[in-house]
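Researcher: We plan to redesign the surface later, but first we want a full-length starting point. Tokens attached.
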């Protein structure tokens, strides 16, 4: 409950005050978790990268469930390499590591830069998938080949030896 400013009570409020933590810790950047007051948009870019990681791999990059352990991991442990935890598009590891580097100045400078790099990862993956699909035999190609082979007269028929044991048959 919010207390009227003219009230003389010391009742607690639910209004956020400076220095209070707001957000889901699993998506917070190291500077947020440390309580820095000079946060900027790059903390949000960190969170967006965590969401992208979670979408691709079905889990968060930092798996700790206790707040203290999570803070220690995000702020001090080596960043997880996405491809070590599952299949991701080529280039996603580098994108994720840049988006979540602890050095704020080494992160993407803007959401436009983050999205452009992510788009490039997706385009490269799509082109690679298209090449892989083009070179892979299609399942119904084998069936068509088998059907075509069955409908063509065999060399043994033309030679007049299509009997059960390869014996000559009368024409």
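Model: Full-length starting sequence:
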């Amino acid at each position: 409950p919010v207390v009227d400013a003219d009230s003389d009570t010391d009742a607690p409020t639910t209004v956020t005050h400076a220095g209070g933590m707001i957000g889901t810790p699993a998506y917070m950047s190291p500077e947020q978790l440390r309580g820095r007051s000079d946060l900027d948009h790059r903390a949000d870019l960190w969170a967006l990268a965590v969401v992208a990681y979670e979408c691709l791999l079905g889990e968060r990059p930092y798996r700790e469930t206790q707040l203290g352990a999570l803070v220690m991991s995000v702020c001090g442990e080596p960043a997880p390499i996405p491809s070590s935890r599952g299949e991701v598009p080529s280039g996603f590891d580098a994108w994720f590591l840049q988006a979540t580097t602890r050095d704020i100045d080494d992160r993407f400078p803007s959401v436009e830069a983050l999205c452009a790099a992510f788009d490039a990862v997706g385009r490269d993956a799509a082109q690679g998938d298209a090449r892989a699909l083009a070179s892979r035999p299609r399942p119904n190609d084998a069936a068509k080949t088998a059907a075509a082979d069955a409908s063509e007269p065999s060399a043994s028929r033309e030679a007049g030896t299509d009997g059960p044991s390869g014996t000559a048959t009368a024409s």
